Amino acid sequence: MTLYEQLQNYKPYNEQEEKDKEAMMWFMKHSENVFTRDNKIAHFSASSWLVNKDRTKVVMVYHNLYDSWAWTGGHADGDEDLLHVSIKEAEEETGLTNVIAVNPDIYSVEILTVDGHIKRGSYVSSHLHINVTYLLEADEEQELSVKLDENSGVRWFTLEEAVTACSEPWMKQIYQKLNEKLRRN
């Protein structure tokens, strides 16, 4: 099933997801290079809400660019299988192995702003991440490790701690939404 079909089938959780889903589908129909950074205005990314088996904790990384505790995730970089991107990024950013999808379906959708910044010595203009989030699971007993070029910390938080540890106001709302969805399942 294509990502467009997955988005068509996705049932939004709230008004934010409803409006973002509509915009994402429009973007896919009317834009080029949506899965690569060649599209300088917006491109797809994949994130994960990476929880333990009991669904009581989530892994967060201290993201150097955003100067905040954050979920794992990254750019599609041409890969249209965003679940694969989500798992790959989660493993790369945390050092965890055997990260699995709780469910292969989309867990959440959001359009996120990225402020202009310097990355590897070059300026990156402000743009949008057309983001798809997946619910992933890992063993909390496994050793965590930092990915030095992206983060300076990796740790498990309770669901409530994950929200309060984040210093980005909009992302706090997203993480709260993810926790609400988790508690309802």
From TrEMBL:
Keyword entries, A-Z: Hydrolase
Pfam family, one: NUDIX
One MF term in the entry's GO annotations: hydrolase activity
Organism domain of life: Bacteria
Keyword field contains Coiled coil: no
Annotated Nudix hydrolase domain residues: 41-179
Entry-linked Gene3D superfamilies: Nucleoside Triphosphate Pyrophosphohydrolase
Family from the record: Belongs to the Nudix hydrolase family.
The protein's name: NUDIX hydrolase
